[in-house]
Amino acid sequence: MKLEDAAQQMNFSEIPPGYYLLGLISAFENRFQAMADSAMREISWKQFFLIICVNLCKKPPTIGELSEIVGSSHQNVKQLLLKLEKKEFITFRPDEKDKRKQRIHLTDHCMEFCEKNDEMSIDIMKNMFNGIPEKDIKTTIRTIMEIEKNLRGISLRSKVLRRTEGKDLYR
User: What does residue 104 show for φ and ψ, rounded to 5 degrees?
Assistant: First the structure.
């Protein structure tokens, strides 16, 4: 079912715009992940997203640093990375200054995969944003970044509140 068809079957008139936006983002992420998973085949979209983020880092990140960047738990990121390591897309190497830390490095195999799929990725992105002015995309980016900043504030306040109540659920 297309989003437009589903929207016609539902009553959104009583939903505040923020709630509607959050629902749209969640549904879009699910649809995009399914499409990207079927396009990539060799690895999942979530694995490819980690590769993109590692590639954009100025120096190879640690699992903790990458977890913070992608907004996922250390455990979830580690599981995805172990699958990538098994497929020879990444390697873990000890940090030069702190041998306890493992830095994530992309392999030649990974870079070949990215190069092989580059044209397809560009085509998907071009088609997905077809007809949307760049200024609108930039406005959406700013809006989502502001929502992210607010979300971090809520998360921080929740941690402080739980600790003051003696119920630290994050330990």
Answer: -95, 125
Total domains, the chain: 2
**Is the same domain home to 120 and 138?**
no
pLDDT tens, position by position, 110-163: 999 999 999 999 999 999 999 999 999 999 999 999 999 999 888 766 666 666
CATH of the domain at 88: 1.10.10.10
**Co-location of 103 and 146 in the same domain:** no
For the chain, the first-to-last Cα distance in angstroms comes to 42
8 Å CB contact between 45 and 32: yes
Lookup: tokens for 80: 């995805």
Q: Where are the beta strands (DSSP E) in 8-148?
A: 90-94, 102-106
> What CA–CA distances, in Å, run from 45 to 40, 73, 78, 111?
7, 17, 15, 16
